[in-house]
Each structure stands twice: as structure tokens, then as C-alpha cells.
Amino acid sequence: MDNSGGASSGVGVLDKAALVLSALESGPATLAGLVTATGLARPTAHRLAVALEHHRMVARDMQGRFILGPRLSELAAAAGEDRLLATAGPVLTHLRDVTGESAQLYRRQGDMRICVAAAERLSGLRDTVPVGSTLPMKAGSAAQVLMAWEEPERLHRGLQGARFTATALSGVRRRGWAQSIGEREPGVASVSAPVRGPSNRVVAAVSVSGPIERLTRHPGRMHAQAVIDAAMRLSEALRRNG
């Protein structure tokens, strides 16, 4: 039986997994609710939901009901990456010109963050992060931003061994931006703000970085507003195309 509203793909287990995900689109469901919504046998519905939970495509809420999992948001965010990169060039160039510092765009990938776009300061001392660079999620203002709005369990895990604390991330959520002074690299300061996708989920971090001598020990005072404006321009572009 195919309740998905479309023809069978011929791969039964995938069709059934798609039924489970479609059933959860309308909200949390108990196992009995999944059985009713999908028409699957109870053991099959349970086996598929638990397997999808293993892959983070399904999760549980506080009542133990099945809900759509965080992996789906991550995949949706990745689907928007081309749109993000198409907009990033001019936005980062403008941010560099306004601040006089190198500008970067980071996305999270597992336990690392990747620089997916950058606009380098044209002369003088600068913090160069080549596109494609992989940096840890344990230090730096971009890592703080990419971590701050994570689900609690992943947040707790990510804080282990990090150079920043849960209290610092609480401040990031309250202010809407992060700063770091010599956290990722001695002598380098940075300011970052979140880029949000159509679902309001944080999908990237936009940053400016440079020597502490120029950015001072309070880089947010100098550049937070410019970085927030750049992040908002990228977020708006994603919403328009979402």
C-alpha cells in the first residue's frame, strides 16, 4: 500500500521511510499515530522510525513522540548553499570595504567549519583565510555563532574542549553577534553574525577578522553593526529564493 500520494519508486524500504517522514511533516506523532498515518504495520513503523532517528532524520520531543530531525534542516541548508554563494561575493566585498578588514563566510560541516567565501583586505597586515580552509569549531567568533543556536545536546557536546563557554554563547544569542580576541589565533580578533535560512535556522556565519592592533580588544564596538548588516543581506537573499 502506498499512502504517499505518488507512485511507488520500486524501492519499498525508501517508500516506507518517505511515508514516515511525510507523516511527521504535520507535527509530532506517537508510534500509534505513525501507524495510523502511514498504514504501515506497527513493527515496520517502529523499525523505520528508529533507523531514521539513528541518521538524525527523525528525533524525539520531550514527550518521547517522533518529530522531524535536525539532519533534514542541514540538508535543506546545503541545498541553499549555491544561492548563498551567489550572493556572498558582493556582500563580503562591501563588508571588507566598509570595515577595511578581511571578510569571510563560514558554514558548519560536522565538527569543523569551512570558509566558503572571502574578500581579502587589499594591502597591509591582514588575516588571510583561504576559501576551502577547514577550521575547528572550538575557537573563534564564527564558531561561536555557528554553535550558539544549536539544539541543546549538540551544544553541550560542542562545548567540550572549546575556548568559549555556555555563558559566552548565551551572550551571543542575546546580542546577535560574537567577538573573539586571540581565541583562534594569537594576535587576531574577529566579529561574526549569523546568516539565517528560510526556516530561520542559522546556516552560516559572516565575519571580519584582522590584527588586534587594529580591531582592538573590543572589536564588536567597531564592527558588529556592519557584520550584522551583511548577515541580514545574505539572510534576505536566502528568504527571497527559499
UniProtKB/TrEMBL annotation:
Keywords: DNA-binding, Transcription, Transcription regulation. PROSITE patterns: HTH_ICLR, ICLR_ED. It holds the Pfam family IclR_C. InterPro entries: GAF-like_dom_sf, HTH_MetabolicPath_Reg, Tscrpt_reg_IclR_C, Tscrpt_reg_IclR_N, WH-like_DNA-bd_sf, WH_DNA-bd_sf. SUPFAM superfamilies: GAF domain-like, Winged helix' DNA-binding domain. Residues 71-240 form the IclR-ED domain. SMART domains: HTH_ICLR. Residues 11-70 form the HTH iclR-type domain. It comes from the Bacteria. PANTHER family: HELIX-TURN-HELIX TRANSCRIPTIONAL REGULATOR, ICLR FAMILY, TRANSCRIPTIONAL REGULATORY PROTEIN. This is IclR family transcriptional regulator NdgR.
